[in-house]
Fold these 2 entries.
Entry 1:
Amino acid sequence: MADLESKSIPIIEVRDIVKIYDSGGSPLRALDGVTFRIERGEFVAVMGPSGSGKSTMMNTLGCLDSPTEGSYFLDGRDVSKLSGDDLSEVRNKKLGFVFQGFNLLPRATALDNVALPLVYAGVSGGERKRIAKEALERVGLASRLTHRPNQMSGGQQQRVAIARALVCKAPLILADEPTGNLDTQTSIDIMNLLTELSKEGKTIVLVTHEPDIAKYAKRVLRFKDGKLTADERKEQDRGE
Amino acid sequence: MSEVFETLRTAVSSLLSNKARSLLTMLGVIIGVGAVIAMVAIGRGAAIQMEGLISGMGSNMVILLSGAGRSGGVRQSGSSAPLLLSDAVAIKDECWSVGAVAPQVNVGAQLIYENRNWPSQVTGTTPDFFVIRAMTVITGRLLDDEDDKSAAKVCVIGQTVARELFGGSDAIGESIRLNRVPFEVVGVLSEKGQSSMGQDQDDTVIVPITTAQRRLTRSGIAGSVNMIQIQARDASMMNAVMSEVSGLMRQRHRLDVGQEDNFELRNMTQMLESLSQSTRVMSLLLGSVASISLLVGGIGIMNIMLVSVTERTREIGIRMAIGARAWNIRTQFLLEALLLSLAGGFIGILLGYAASYGVSSFLKWPTEVSPGAVALAAGFSAFVGVFFGFYPAWKASRLRPIDALRFE
C-alpha cells in the first residue's frame, strides 16, 4: 500500500517558487515562479548560463535555502516552511550531495567522511563502519578506506563524496557540477557511476553547464533569468 | 550516546591536529589555575602559621608591659613606672578572672659547660609559665614554687641548649654557668620546634624569676620584670581580665582619674586574631588576583574558538549539508572549548602543586595546598570552558549551511 502510494507521489514537486535576495540595494529575483515535477528514478540535468537561477534552484532543492514564496514538496512533504533542524533531518534522510569541490572533511579518512551522515542519523559506531565500507566498495574504493582526501586524486575524492551521498539510503542525489574539477576521462567515469545509480533507482538531479555532461541525463531543465524556459525529454526514453 | 562519543572524538582530533595552538590557548587557564592554587596555598600556609602562633603562645593571653606614660598622646620617657614581681603576685591574688600569671625577666646569657660555649636567651619566670606555654620535660623536672621561694640556682633547658652543651649525654644534675653564675640543670624540656616566626623555641634556658632578679640582672630597680603574661580563666573572661588588671594597675600606680595609663595591656588573642584576619584577607586578595588571570585565560579560549569557527566555516557547512543539526555543531565546539579548559585546568593543578612545593622548599614559606582550592579551580576552569566556549559554539551553530558552504 505504502509502496503504491509512494509511486504515485513525485519525488520533487515545486510550485511557483520565488526566491528574492535583497542584499545590496535593489532586490534580485533569483527564481521567478518556477514550477515542475520530477518523478522517482529520473535523471535530470539542470542547465543555464550563470545567473540564470540554476544554482539557487539547486540550493532550494537541496534544502540548503528556503524559497521566499511557493511550495516545495520533497517526497510528498512540504519542506518549504521547515526550520533549520528539521531541514537538517530532511537533508540527512532524503538527500545526498555531490559538489563540484567534493567538500570532504580534510582531516578525516575516506571511511570517516563516508560515515559522517550516519553519525547524524544516530547509527551506532560498528554499523556505521560496515555501511560506509560497503558504500566505498560500491564506488570502487575498497582499497582507499584509510586515505585522507589529500592522498587521493580528484576522481577518487568525488567517488568518496558519492559514497557519502549513498550511506543514508537517500532517494535523491543532487550533483552540483560534479565534474567541474575533473579531467575528461575521470568525468566520464563519474558520470557512468551516476548513471548506474540512476538505473538502480536513485533520482539524480545534476547541475551543469556542459552539454556533454548533460547528455547523460534523460531530461533537461533549462533556466534563464530565474525562469524555467525549457523542459526537454529525450525521445528514446519516452517509450520506456 | 554514540553521537556524543563521535563528537568527542572529533573534538579531540581537532585539538590534536593543532597542538601548538591548543597548548598556547590552554596556557591562560594553566597559569590561572596554577596561580589560584599556589596563591591560596601560600595564604593558607600563612594562616596555619598564625594558628600555630596562637596555640604556641597559649590561649586567652593578655600581656602587661611597662608602657611609657603618655600625656596628650606624647610619650614621656621619664614617667614610666616599672612592673614589679609584686604586681604579678597582686594580679594573681586579687583579679578573680585571671587564671595564671607569669612574670618574665629576659636576659641574654653566655652558657658555659666545661669547655663548651653557647649564647642563648635566659628567661626568669614562675611555674605558671609552663602551664601557659604548655611546656613539659622529657627528663628531670620542671621548676616549682619551692625553687622560686628559695631563689634556687636551678634551671631547665631546651633541646637545642642540651644538644649544644651536652651533645648526647645526660644533662640532669650537671652544672652550667650562665654569665659565670653556676646553675644546676634539673630538667630538659620536650621539643617545641621552630616558632612560626622562625625562632628556635628550644634554644632557651628557664630559671626561677627570683634567682634571675638576684643573680642575672643588674637593673636599677629591685624586683622589676620585663613583662607579665596573664591568662584568663577562659575565653569569655578576656574583657574582665583587661578591666580588672587595668583597674588594679592604675590603683597600684596611683593614677588619678583622667591620667593616662603608664602601662600597656595587650590582648594578645585579639591581636593575633586581627593578624590572622589580615592573613585571610591577604589570601583572599591573592586568590582573586589569580582568578582574574583565569578569567583572562577564558577570554583567550573564546578568542581562539572564534578564530577556529571562522576557519572551519566550510567544515561546518559540510556537516550541516549532510545532516548535522545546530545542536551537533554547538556541542562539537563547546566540547572543544571544554576540553581545552579542563586539560588546562588539570595541568594548572599540577603546576599549582609544583609551585607551592617550590615556594615552601626554596623560600621556606609554609604552604598548604587546599583541596577546596583545587576543586574550585577545576570547577572554575570547566565553567570558563562552557561560558567562554558557548558564544563561539552558538555562533557556529547559527551559520546558514548555504553561506557556510560557499565560504572560502
Note: The CA atoms of residues 2 and 147 of chain B lie 84 Å apart.
Entry 2:
Amino acid sequence: MAKQHVSTTVNGEPVEFLCAPEQTLLDVLRDELHLTGSKEGCATGDCGACSVTLDGRLVCSCLVLGAEVGGRKIETIEGMAKGDELHPLQKKFIEHAALQCGICTPGVLIAAKSLLERNPDPSETEVRYWLAGNLCRCTGYDKIVRAVMDAAADMRSA
Amino acid sequence: MARVVLSGALKRLAGGASQVEVEAGDVRQLIRALGIKYPALAPHLDDGYAIAIDGEIFQDAWFAPINQDSEVHFIPAIRGG
Amino acid sequence: MNDMTTTSLQQSEFKIVGTRPARPDGVDKVTGRAKFGADLYLANMLVGKVLRSPHAHARIKSIDTAKALALPGVKAVITAADFGDLPSEFIPAGEMMVNFKDMTRNVMAREKALYEGHAVAAVAATSEAIANKALKLIRVDYEVLPHVMDVVQAMEADAPLLHEDMYTINVEPRPAKPSNIAKRVEFALGDIAAGFAKADIVVEREFTTQPVHQGYIEPHACVASVSEDGQAELWCTTQGQFIVRSFCAKLLGMEVSKLRVTASEIGGGFGGKTVVYVEPLALALSRKACQPVKMVMSRVEVFQASGPTSGAKVWVKMGATRDGKITAAEAVLKYQAGAFQGSPIQPGCMCAFAPYDLENVKVVGFDIVTNRPKVAAYRAPGGPISEYGVESVVDELAQKLKLDPIELRLKNAAKEGTKAAYGPKFGPIGLVQTLEAARAHPHYKVPLKANQGRGVASGFWFNIGGETCAALNLGEDGSVTLVAGTPDIGGSRASLAMMAAEELGIALEHVRPVIGDTSALGFNFLTGGSRVTFSSGMAVIEAARDMIGQLRERAAKIWEIDLKDVTWQGGYARAVRDPAKKPLSLADLANTMGKTGGPIVGNAAINAQGAGPSLATHIVDVEVDPETGKTTVLRYTAIQDAGRAIHPSYVEGQMQGGAAQGIGWALNEEYIYDAKGHLANPGFLDYRIPVCSDLPMIDTVIVEVPNPRHPYGVRGVGETPIVPPMAAVSNAVSNATGIRFTELPLSPPRVLKAIEAKGASA
C-alpha cells in the first residue's frame, strides 16, 4: 500500500511526514522524525514509556496510528523544556533522584504534566492512580511520587 | 603452613580430606601445592572458584598473599546481577 | 594489589561524599536526549528480525531459507550454520566461566529448539515489513518432542531429556544414564544430626517459587556494523560492553580488537543484560550484508527468550532450643536453569543461611534444565529464592517459640568473626545494626487492625569486585573528564564523579563523567554484583591519587623544590616549608602542563578485591481482603548496611527499587505456560509487575558499617534489597490470615483458596 502524507503539529512546530498504514505514531516519531525521547517498552499500551499528548489528551503513542494525527497537536518529551528552562517537573525529577535508568522517565513526565494540567493539587493516591499506566522497574515509584507532589506545590505557589 | 578447608566437590576430589596444611606464600603457590598433593584437584582450582583468605574473598588473584597461619577456603566464584 | 585503606578519609572530612547533588546525566534523561539501545539510526541501516521456535522442544530436521533470501529487500539470512560450533567446556570469558557450546546454541538453536521462542534463524532486510515477510518464507522442518517445564518432573528418570550428553556432575558413582540434572552441590558445616538432636523445636517446610523476569522496561536492542575488512562496531544496551565484546568475538570467531562495543544508555538490566541475545545475530547479519543492522526485541520476545531467574523447590528444616538458639539448619534446593545448565544454585546454597551464626548446617542443591528460556542473572542471583524459604522458617520458629522475630534473629545473627555457613569468617558486617534499627523504627510499633499482618525478614548478598579501569583526563582549563568502563545503570556516574572530586579537592561541577567504549579503557568486568560504586569507585580514587602524584611533581619542578615538600590539599599544590609560595590550583597546573612535561592523565587498572557483603532487614505491613484474597501493602521499611553511602538518594533508590521488585515477585509475578509449553502471558498486561498504585511509600534507613577494604568504606548496595521482600511479605500475609503460605506468588486466587480451605475446615 502506498504511503500516506500527513501534516501535523509536533511540539508547536508544523511537521510533514509520509507513513505506511501500519506505522504507529510512535514509529513515526522515532523512525521518521527521529524524536527518540518517546520509548517503546511493549507496543501494547501497557508500559506508558511512549506517552505523548494528542490535542492535550494523554495517549500511548504505540496505540495511535501515524495516519490518524493529521491536523492535530502532538506534544512529546522533546517539547517539555522551554529554551534552556526545564519544566518544574523535570527539575524536581532530578532534584529528588526520581529516575535511575531513565527509560520510563519521558513517559512518566508527560503523564505527570498531563495530570497537573487537570489537577494542580493531587493527593498521593491521585498521583499513584494517574501514573499507574507508566511502569518503572527501578525506583519503586517512591521518589517519582514525591517529585510530582513537590513540583505541583511549586507550580501552585508560582 | 596455611590451613586449607575443602568442601563439596573439592573435598571429594581430594579423597575426602576436609582440611589440608599447605606451604604457600600466595594464591598461585597454594594452587600449585594443592595440585601436586591431590592431582585430581589440579584442573579445578584455578577457575570457577573464589578464595577466602582469613575471611576476605579474592577472585582471580594469583598473587594475593597467604600467611603462615592463614585459613583458606575455596568457594564457588560469585558473579551477581 | 592495591592498599589504599591506610589513607582513608574520615567521615567528618568528606565534603562531597554523603551529599545529594544533581546527577550529571539527569538533564539528558528528563529531556529525552539520552540515547538508549534502540535510539541509534545509521545511514543505509537494515532491520534484523528473528524467527523463533513455536515449539517448547523439537528436533530441527532442516531449515530452508532460499525463498526468504530471494525476496527483494532481503540482504542476509542466517542460521546456526553461520556460527562455528564450540566445544563443551567452561572457559573464562572476562571473569565469567562460560560454556560456549551452550551459548552458541542459545543465541541460535542448532540440533534442537529447546523452548518456545528459541531463535532458529534471522534475516536482515531494508524494512521491518520485508523482514517480517521474509521470516514467513523460511521453512523449518521440526520433529516435535515431548517437553518438561516443571523442575520436579524434569528430575524424574523418565522425563523428556533436553541434552543427551548431560550426566550429573559431583555425584559418585558417575550416573550411568544422562538426565536433566546438570549438577549437585553441597555445603556442610558441623554435625547436622547432632544439631537437630539438641533442638527443642523443629520446623520443616517445602516452598515453591516461580521463575520471574527482570522486567527491564527497555527491550534488548543493538546496531551492528561490520565492514568488508572485518572490522566491527556494535552499539547495544548492556551491563558490560567488554563482556559483550568477549562473548561476540568468541561466537563469531573474531579477534577481540576488531570489535568495538559502545554501551548505550541502559534502560534497566537487573542482571538480565549480562548476556547476549541479538548482538551476535546482528553482527553475523551485518557481516554477510556489509551494511549496518539494527535489531530490537519485542516485549513478547523479551518474555519468551530472555531472562528470567529460576523457579525452584526449596525444602528447609531448622531446629532451635526453647530459648531461641538455632541448633541446626538444613536445606535442599532445586533450581531451574532453563534450557541450558547454569542456574544460580551455588550462590543460592551459600546465601541460604548466611545471615546466621550456625554450628551445624547442610545445604544440597541441584541445577536442573527444563524447556524454558535459559535463566539469566537477576539481582543477587540465587539468594532471594533460598533465603525466602529460610526467612519464612525463621518466622515460624519465632512464632512457635513465642519470640519476637527480630529478637530471634538477633540471638542468632552473624557478625564480625562469625564463621559463615559457606565456610570463611566474616569481616565487619551490619546485620545486627539493621535488626536493631528495625526494632527501634516507629513502623515496628504501629498497631495492626483486623486482617492486617506484619512481616520481617533479613537478607544477605556477597557483592563482588573485579577487573576495573578508570581514567581521569585533565583538561587544559583544569576541568577533568572521568572515563569509566562500567555502564551506568542507576546513577553511578554521579557517585564516581563525587569520589573523584572528593579526592582531588575540586568542585563536583568540574568533573564530567562518561562511560567509555571498549577502545577507551582496558578491560572492565560488567556492571553487576553490586560492584560499580565499590570497584569503579576504587579505581577512580586510585586514578585521582595517580593524578595528584603527577600534579605534585609538576609543582615541585615549578617551585624547584623537593617533591616531598609538596602536598596536595583542598584542590591545591602547597609548598609545606615555604608558605610564601602561592598555592597552585588544578587550573594553574593544567594551564602550564604542556611546558612542565605534557598532558596529565590519572590512570588505574585494578582487580578490585575485598568486596564486603551487605545485609538488610525489611519490615512490611499488609492487609488481606478475606473476600477476594487480594493483598495490599500498607507500609514498607527497608533498612540496609551501605558501608558508606556516597550519594544517599541513589542508595535509597536501590533499596526502594529492590523492595518493589521483591513485592512483585511475592504477590503477582509468574509465567503461565499452557500444556504445550507455550507462554500464555508474554506481556506486561498479564505478567504484572508492580504499578504505582500498588505500592505505598517505601521508607529507608541507611546503616553505615564501613567496609575496611574500600578507601571510603563502600559496600555494594544494589542487590541485597531484593532478598528480604518475598519472605517479609509472605510472613506478613501468613500473620494476617493465620495460614502459613509456602508458595509464590501470593496472588489473590491462591490466597483466597487457602482462606476458604481454612474456613471450611474450621
Note: Chains A and B do not touch (no CB pair under 8 Å).
